[in-house]
Amino acid sequence: MPGREEMRGLVAEKARRPTSTARLGVALAFLLLTCVGHVRECDGQDAPFPNLSDYVHASLRQWDVPGVALAAIKDGQIVLTRGYGIRTVGESAAVDDQTLFAIASNTKQMTATLLARFVDQGRLNWNDSVKNYLPDLELFDPYVTRELTIRDLLCHRNGLPDYGGDIAWWGSTYDRTEVLRRLRHVRPTSSFRSRWAYQNTMFIAAGEIAAKISGESWDSTIQKQLFQPIGMTSTKTSIHQLTGETNVATPHIRLDSRVQTIPWRSLDNGGPAASVISNARDMAAWMRWLLNDTQIDGKSLVSAKSLRELWSPQMVMPVTDRDHDVYGSQFRAYGLGWEMRDYHGLKVLMHGGWADGMYSFTAIVPERKAGVAVLTNLHNRDLSVSLGYRLLDQCLGLPPRDWAAENWKRLVERENDQIQEFRKLESQRHLGTQPSLALAEFAGHYLNDLYGTVEVVNHNNQLQLKLTASPTYVADLVHWHHDTFRAIWRDPVAETSFITFSLNARGTVAEVKFRMSDFIDPSEYVYRRSPR
User: What would the pLDDT profile of 227-247 be if each residue is shown by its tens digit?
Assistant: First the structure.
């Protein structure tokens, strides 16, 4: 939820990074594992990329990342599929090129490519109305509902907020049909097609259109139309397909100054946006197929015209100071399932994917037939992107650049900024205040049209917040000031946030509003008190 994405930045680790001393301790422990052979790479040579192993191992130690798998394409050929590090902290099983990772939002490029196949088959047009395929889909604005096209679904320009509506599916028990039904309650934050804002739910709709056309689920359709012909024999669309698999990476997050394992989260209800699970070997096959005109046995599965459509700018994205200063970019745009930027005079197509405890990064340069994929098993994006650009530079013959060191420095700067931000927030806290009512008066059920029901429970004079459709989303509420509480979420990827109760004219609780988490859904939603 994303998840999750290369565009989002470091959000889920806010206020959870260890001190420098603690980081050093974790790094030393990781170094010891390396020395006793618990950090190994799969068979392979560094010949195409001199000193790559040393660089990757050093980066893993510095960033406290348990393991990583890499894939690289050069001149249209696979030149690297390799694993480094370990699948699970505290165990010795090594990551190799067949270790499975969640690739999260890198699923989007695959869903878009699946629809491109249907375009070539004459079963779909990019400018078809979504209503032709999903007549029950409604958005908040009737005009957008009427005008929304297949193209709009795939390039983040529908007017909804960044990640808006993700609270309805990331971690919830709602299925894809129910998630899409609830989209009518997501309020737009911009006019239609006027601003780029990242959306997962639109790709869920795109996947349901693929299912409608094929007469099978999106999961079955993408396996038959893409993964099987390409030879992506290990790639899956659900964590339930991991049963019986042994070569699987474990998700990790840094909590309490140490790297810890966390459970895999099912993203099945957001499948077409984020649920694919793959490995370095299959990702290499995917990139090679794309970079060689999607040919299988001399025949292209996707036409050159459709590939150009996927890879052409559809919506302009802002060029930030970081884009300009770090990457030298003059433009950024989103195509159909791909972000793109200029880099050293070349158009680079890329995407990131953030799931609970894992991050992936892919980038291809069609005019050079080059591509890289990076899969990691820690809840942090920075090392994946760093290794991705390090490897891409080598594929493109550019001078070596220490991306990991540069991004580590930026991470420390962001940490310091976040610390100062929280100190400022603490300085504005109204100490000595009390809630307006006894805690028992806040207990009850609250309803939001998009999400559904949340429950506030008074347990031994301690308030708890439970999102009823999301079993892991439980928060302990600690009084902050007045009728605002700090929510300490038990789910490891949810950030600490604030919730505020409001009273009505009768002096009873009328509603509660809160923002779940930047990682899960950054929008603030209001929940109305249900009648007792």
Answer: 999 999 999 999 999 999 999
pLDDT over 80 at 8, yes or no: no
CB distance 527 to 446 below 8 Å: yes
* H helical segments located in 215-348: 218-222, 228-230, 271-274, 280-291, 304-310, 321-327
Average pLDDT over the chain, rounded to whole?
Answer: 91
CA 361 – CA 351 distance, rounded (Å): 6
The answer to whether the CB of 390 falls within 8 A of the CB of 406 is: no
Q: Which two tokens stand for residue 330?
A: 């003059």
pLDDT at residue 47 in the model: 62
Task: Give the SS3 label for residue 98.
Answer: coil
Per DSSP, 99 falls in state -
Pairwise CA distance, residues 337 & 110, whole Å: 8
Q: Amino acid letter at 243?
A: T
Please report where in the chains the tokens 């270790």 appear, as a residue: 99
The two structure tokens encoding residue 138: 């409604």
Helix or strand holding residue 421 (H, E): helix 403-427
- Alpha-carbon span 315 to 493, nearest angstrom: 30
Measured CA to CA, the distance from residue 176 to residue 525 in angstroms comes to 21
pLDDT tens readout for residues 39-87 = 333 444 456 898 999 999 999 999 999 999 999 999 999 999 999 999 9
pLDDT digits (tens, 9 = 90+) for 342-364: 999 999 999 999 999 999 999 99
Tokens of residue 386, six digits: 């760093």
| Sign of the alpha-carbon torsion through 154, 159, 162, 165 | negative
Rounded CA separation 322/129 (Å): 37
From the list 36, 56, 35, the residue with the least C-alpha distance to 44 is: 56
Backbone angles phi, psi at 272, to 5 degrees: -65, -15
Run of H or E including 362:
strand 358-365
Which alpha helices (H) appear in 161-226, and where do they start and end? Answer: 176-182, 201-214, 218-222
Joined tokens for residue 215: 């007469």
Is the pTM above the cut of 0.85? yes
The SS3 assignment for 379 reads coil
Phi-psi map region of 339: left, alpha, beta (phi>0 left; psi -120 to 50 alpha): beta
CA atoms within 13 A on the CB side of 298: 0
The answer to whether 372 and 360 have CB atoms below 8 angstroms apart is: no
The pair of structure tokens assigned to 10 is: 């470091």
What one-character-per-residue DSSP string does 430-443 give?
A: -TT---SS-GGGG-
